[in-house]
Design brief:
The protein is of the alpha+beta class. The protein has helices spanning 108-111, 125-135, 171-185; strands spanning 11-13, 24-32, 37-39, 42-44, 49-58, 62-76, 83-97, 115-116, 121-123. α1 links the parallel β7 and β8. It is rod-shaped, with a radius of gyration of 28 Å. The N and C termini lie far apart (88 Å). It binds zinc ion (ZN) (2 copies). It holds the Pfam family YceD. It comes from Nocardioides currus. This is Metal-binding protein.
Amino acid sequence: MTSLDPRAPLVLDTRELGRRPGSQLETVRTEPAPAELGIEVLHVPEGSPVELDLRLEAVMEGVLVSGSATAGLVGECARCLEPIEDDITVRFQELFVYDDTRHDPSDEDLDDEVSRLEDDLLDLEPLLRDAVVLALPFQPLCREDCPGLCVECGARLADDPDHAHEEQIDPRWAGLTALSEQDLQDPSTTD
Ligand SMILES: [Zn+2]
Ligand SMILES: [Zn+2]
């Protein structure tokens, strides 16, 4: 197990709680985002500010961490590839168990999933990462009804809703289309 760096931005020191059940600590801080926070198409840029509002509470088995994180997101629309900028607020709660706590052997299967304190330090990063990833849409869109790209030429249809290609018109109808266009341009010829 690699030991935690107490100076790392997302490592919290719980010693102040003194392992006294019921003691609490509230902290509001802004920390730089770790790398790869989010998914490829939508993520928090590395180093950008993450606002954390945290409450640490000592309980019998460890320290209960609850709070929220707010950060900016960048990504691209899954349909039209247009850049997206958004922000996200996630809430989380997790119990970090004291590293010297012994467990019932029947709990062994769950053991790997338990978050642990290391020398009274806790790493918020996995918790933040899970909360952010779970909150993100699998297919981010620039707007809910984004029409995507033209399959013919790749043009962004939201910018050009009446987009059409000559080749798509069945040649048998081409004459008719030409006629109706003429009608529209000059109604007097219909008489
Ligand atoms: Zn789009
Ligand atoms: Zn097109």
